[in-house]
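fwd from M.: "can u put these together and see what the complex looks like"

so here's what she sent:
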Amino acid sequence: NAGVTQTPKFQVLKTGQSMTLQCAQDMNHEYMSWYRQDPGMGLRLIHYSVGAGITDQGEVPNGYNVSRSTTEDFPLRLLSAAPSQTSVYFCASRPGTGESQPQHFGDGTRLSIL
Amino acid sequence: AQKITQTQPGMFVQEKEAVTLDCTYDTSDPSYGLFWYKQPSSGEMIFLIYQGSYDQQNATEGRYSLNFQKARKSANLVISASQLGDSAMYFCAMREGPRDYKLSFGAGTTVTVRA
């Protein structure tokens, strides 16, 4: 009963490095999304996907790329890390229908950019 | 403009007492949904309760209830009989539109339950 699994849990990068945050869900959910959480600002949507092969930008997409080749996986790529991307990143998923369905969140990835 | 406003950065409540967390929202869409999440110090996001814009009754889920005042655009969370394990950050979030599942979050309220 894994739900939404994020890896890694912690990561330290140097400015300019690239990396991919992994997200996988085993609930056959069509909708997946990435948020970042910064102090005093709640969670802000980075990118989201309504199904395999379909992605779109959220509120703060700059500096991030996503792809959705399978229903299960939704990786988030930082192409050239910047200190402003230091944050806690959450992946979430939910079924494609049902207005009352909540989003199920992973445990988060704490990312520090030096 | 902020879509979700939580005006209380932090609150203290005595164990076994009730606490109300404020949430106001801004949308022109007649179809929307409001969610409350709990984030304990361990960091995970836990779904608590949901209120739809067309729901006739206030949502309840165990010790959690929603005071939904549609005309005032407020959806306050009430936690009854507070327990030490209720100490956490609480977020209000909104979905706008019948098939748009993106969530807008408030800044959160930290609740500390005192013994």
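replying to her w this: The longest strand of chain B covers residues 88-96.
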